[in-house]
Amino acid sequence: MDSGSLSTEGRSFTNVSAAVASVLRRRWWYLLPAVFITYSLAYVDRANYGLGAAAGLAATLHITGKQNSLLGALFFLGYFAFQLPGTILVGKRSPVRLIFVLLGVWGVLAALTGVIRIFWALALDRFFLGVAESCIFPAMLLLLTRWFTRSERSRANTLLIIANPVTVLWMSVMTGYLIEAVGWQRAFIYEGLPAVLWAVAWIVTVRDRPEQAKWMTPEAIEFLEGRLDEEQLAVAPVKAIRTALLRGDVILLSIVYFCWSLGIYGFVLWLPTIVRRGADLSMGTTGLLSAIPYLAGILLMLFAAHRSDKTLRRKTMVWPFLLIAGLALYGSFLSASSSFPIAFAGLIIAGACMYAPYGPFFAIIPERVPRSATAEVLAFVNSAGALGAFVGSYFVGWLQAATGNARAGYLLMAGALVCSAILMLLLNEKGHQRNGAVRENES
């Protein structure tokens, strides 16, 4: 980006002063690192359960494999149940202050996962951990819509969501060796407490809107708000939130995300178990191998986000990756019993392609619905994903416990991902616009 211009909406505005451009670049350094760390900590506290399960959590607590699957899935049930109510609360309160409170709550609940020994109490803890995290993701996405323009949004979303595979990448390595050193229970405690400490840094660093940030100048605020207001002129208004939630494209995106999340969260929670059983490895090596698909996912996410913002094409940067992920997972299923290296290569491709489309996918919603309904629509779509995650994490584990192998779970995840790709093809690329409004050509 030139010092005297700012690129937005696919055009270069040469009338932007170098001072304004410099201030606007600070958004990427002041806001996104804090958002990244917060979502990273949230993901540690939800994804380390898979390594705990692979390390013998069920044997330690004397519970069945199906109960173990239920514990892994209950997080997503709590996440689903409170998604919309939590987002309504975000709309009425300061998102930044609410996230500050929830950071402390979920850090304590995550640490308690390593302390509680009674099944029903642990089940409640996992459920309320999901409740505590339920409005974090839509609140973060809403925050980014207030700070970044359309041509920046896929990259901004990706730098939020990339915390997901980055976290699983280092967590898979670190947690595997940490479990070997101190056991899965202490590992859960050690990984839950940083969220409590980070809450203080969050409330000091982040603000809800550009005009509340001391480092934003009046000129930069005026320019940014003007661009965001201009974008809204092309989006058809809605009379009520219910109208926005029941629109055909919103329902379709919700179903797509349900199927997608069914595949990806089944994959996240049960990859360590699948890898360990397939190759009979130590926990340290299992964690190291389990990190590889996420490294590939990080690279593909960055590519897809950059390409999506450069071309403003969203749909075509989503469905191909989902289709490849489903087919790769099915290929891994076919080779699971004959060749672990081939099956694992399929898992790497599948994992990378599951993560790649996140940025473009969540950039679609603010381009189709007005600001007044963005938070609720994001929450609605994300709640469908949470329900898919519950189904995926529970039934993939349940099928593994019932059949004694991971093959049926492979089929369930692969089928769900292929369905999500096919459904994404049905999305109308133009969306809902005001009469006479013209969008950029996405062809």
Detailed description of the structure:
The protein has 443 residues and is mostly helical. The chain has helices at residues 18-30, 32-54, 57-61, 65-81, 83-92, 95-112, 119-133, 136-147, 150-161, 163-182, 184-205, 218-232, 241-245, 248-279, 283-311, 319-335, 340-355, 358-364, 371-403, 407-424, and strands spanning 6-8, 11-13.
Query: What strand line-up does the widest sheet have?
Result: 1-2
Shape: globular
First CA to last CA: what distance?
25 Å
Number of distinct beta strands: 2
Radius of gyration, CA atoms, in whole angstroms: 21 Å
> Sheet bearing the most strands, described?
2 strands, antiparallel
Summary keywords:
mainly alpha, two-stranded antiparallel sheet, disordered C terminus, about 450 residues, disordered N terminus, 20 helices
Brief digest:
The chain has about 450 residues and is mainly α. It is built from 20 helices and 2 strands. A two-stranded antiparallel sheet has the order 1-2.
What is the topological layout?
Layout lengths: L5 E3 L2 E3 L4 H13 L1 H23 L2 H5 L3 H17 L1 H10 L2 H18 L6 H15 L2 H12 L2 H12 L1 H20 L1 H22 L12 H15 L8 H5 L2 H32 L3 H29 L7 H17 L4 H16 L2 H7 L6 H33 L3 H18 L19
Antiparallel strand pairs: 1-2
